[in-house]
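Still learning. Any example?
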Amino acid sequence: MAPSPDDFDRAPSPAGSPRARDLGLRRARRLTRWAGVTAVTGAAALGGLYSHLLPGGTADPPAQSPSAPSTTGSHEGDDGGHEDDGPAAPQPPSQPPTATQQQPHTTTGAS
């Protein structure tokens, strides 16, 4: 936002006048607003950049190329030293959690 022409065309008021104070406050508000907008925009831009640059930063699964070796076949002579494609997806528990019938235990700092 460009400064309004009336802010700079007028002769400066004597120091201590209410008009000079109001002009100074308006300029300070405008500067603070632009600094805040710039900081938020910069943080969003850096966050977006880092989320794409860091491994695992996207929600999209990586595209498999047709020439990539299959990992589902048997590997005869494989000693287990092959690279893993990444962390495995979380699996649900074999049994759902159950509630316990224990009384709550509270410890205070008093002696």
In short: The first helix runs from residue 5 to 9.
